[in-house]
Amino acid sequence: MSWDLRRTTIVNMRQRILVVDDEPSVHDVARGYLEREGYEVVSAMSGIDGLVMAQTMEPAVVVLDRMLPDMTGEELCVAVRRASDVAIVMLSAKASEGDRIHGLELGADDYLVKPFSPRELVARVAALLRRTRPLQAVATATPDVSIDDGRLRVDVERHQAVVDGAPVDLTPCEYRLLMALAQTPGRVYSRFELINRVQGYDYEGYERTIDAHVKNLRRKIESDPGKPRYIVTVHGVGYRLADKAA
Predict the structure, then answer these.
(1) What pLDDT score was predicted for residue 166?
(2) I need a labelling partner for 131 at 20 to 30 A (CA). Which of 11, 55, 60, 89 fits?
(3) CATH number for the 12-136 domain, one of 1.10.3720.10, 3.30.420.40, 3.40.50.2300, 3.50.90.10?
(4) Alpha helices (H) in 60-117, listed in sequence order
(5) Is 139-241 CATH 3.40.640.10?
(6) DSSP state of 244
(7) Which residues of the chain have pLDDT under 70?
(8) According to the model, what pLDDT value does residue 61 have?
(9) Can you tell me the distance from the alpha carbon of 174 to that of 40, in angstroms, rounded to the nearest whole number?
(10) What is the pLDDT of residue 102?
(11) Count of alpha carbons within 13 Å of 151, Cβ hemisphere only?
(12) Can you name the residues that pair with 19 across neighbouring β-strands?
């Protein structure tokens, strides 16, 4: 396998945030705090409206409630993720570790427990945007990371993996995870290191949530996720990228 990392030039633009929740108070608070920070905020009170707006309004981040009147937040998350790699923050009153991990396995990038601090929501949105700006950036001509071992190839400009000739879209978290591991194939990264690289050093989530992102990434790039060829588990420590394809 060969690895190369591409640098990017950031393109500044006003970011649109879509909030999907059936509680008017959540919209009022989120809009007030997010607009104060310069974001454009659009709102949907139902899952169907949220899905349509996510598909047509090209938001930079979707903030969605897990409990909606017409469909579950899980269903909406899956539907949005199938169509887009937009960053997703899931809101929920369910605070257990299992609930958080389940939300991430469905494709959410972050998980915020209700009732939440509006300032924390703003901080989470800002952190996600800092990490996903390379998707909206203009790549320079300096090639750095390419991954191509004949079966798996990563197109850095398209933010896309190609497996056996077929494109596989990666979420921002999955892409950052793969690139983090690819920087030093064979090196073992702890869960703490990876969650900081994937979610950012200001992320306060439980570090084992990285397992959910690894699970999702393996489903997309491994021929047998139960016997991974690329992303190898180092029990009791974390993960490494195989320095040589098996």
Answers:
(1) 87
(2) 55
(3) 3.40.50.2300
(4) 73-83, 97-105
(5) no
(6) S
(7) 1-14, 132-148, 199-208, 244-246
(8) 94
(9) 26
(10) 84
(11) 9
(12) 43, 63
